[in-house]
Amino acid sequence: MAHKPMRQQMEEYILALQDQIVSALEGLDPGAPPFKRDSWIRAQGGSGQSCAFAMPASEDGATAHESILEKAGVNISLVHGTLPPAAVKQMRADHTSMPLPENPEGGLPFFAGGISLIIHPRNPNAPTVHANYRYFEITEPSHANEEPNLLAWWFGGGCDLTPSYLYEEDAKHFHSTLKTICDAHGAALFPAFKKWCDEYFYIPHRMECRGIGGIFFDDLNEGRHLRLPGTEKRPRTPAEIFTFVQALGNAFLPSYMPILSRRHAMPYTPLQRRWQLVRRGRYVEFNLIVDRGTKFGLNSPGARIESILMSLPETARWEYMTELGVEGTEEGKLMEVVKTPREWA
Fold first, then answer.
1. Please, which of 36, 152, 175, 327 could form a disulfide with 98 given CB 3.0 to 4.6 Å?
2. Which of 3, 65, 95, 130 is catalytic?
3. Region at 113 (left for phi over 0; alpha for psi -120 to 50; beta for the rest)
4. For this structure, is 130 an active site residue?
5. What is the rounded (10 degree) CA torsion for 321, 322, 324, 327?
């Protein structure tokens, strides 16, 4: 039996993972409406399925059910087409290990498949979480019925936690779960990917991280980064790297659901809700000003704006010179760790 192409293996995996995650979230709050499942076709090539949750509000803004989630989305995209020369140039700058031509006439064919999720709980004690795992291919232009020559391929992704209030046991559980997966594939991986996460999810104009981190990686291919037990002296195969990415994807529910389960019903005050909205404002700032993925999506031909901006919270707040977050307060405890990242595992 012929071996399945990696793009097909990735498609099958992320579709199954999407269903697992959405089912788990729906099972935690059976009184809330189910996620809205929205399948779409990209005119330039490809398709996807968005599973989004947003509690419908009445005209006075009230909801019939105090749902656990305020807004959430678990999206799949499987797109292909041609990257224009300008996009290839940008990709060479962002992915320095990629052997791509500098000035490709007419652009280059590409495939991108991934799962991206964001969960914004209603309770300020329950943290926001984000995860993204993706596979990318770039090939040479080819004629019909010809097998395209692969120029470059890589995996990327990560998972990070963004609380409004710091619970150290939550931070330790989240990071320890990810570290266990990474350690099974090489002791150097978690420290490197945790550092990469802290550096990537950083808001320069605020001089603080978006949250308390997790892991982040890009350009995972046969020549970069991954060190599997007993294979340090040879290139890693696509199958080995895919196994690692699958293990991380499968770790999402164990890393996050216990935290959400123990925090979503905690009592909270109007001040805590206000602080949550201020922190969500910082989340918006990062996603719209800094995040490379958002910029790539918005600049891609045929971009599906609803899916790209799904990561933004339902509500946020920007206070002029807010007095919240000062040293010695519960809010200040969070500010200490977003200003100076800590090791949690």
1. 152
2. 130
3. beta
4. yes
5. 0
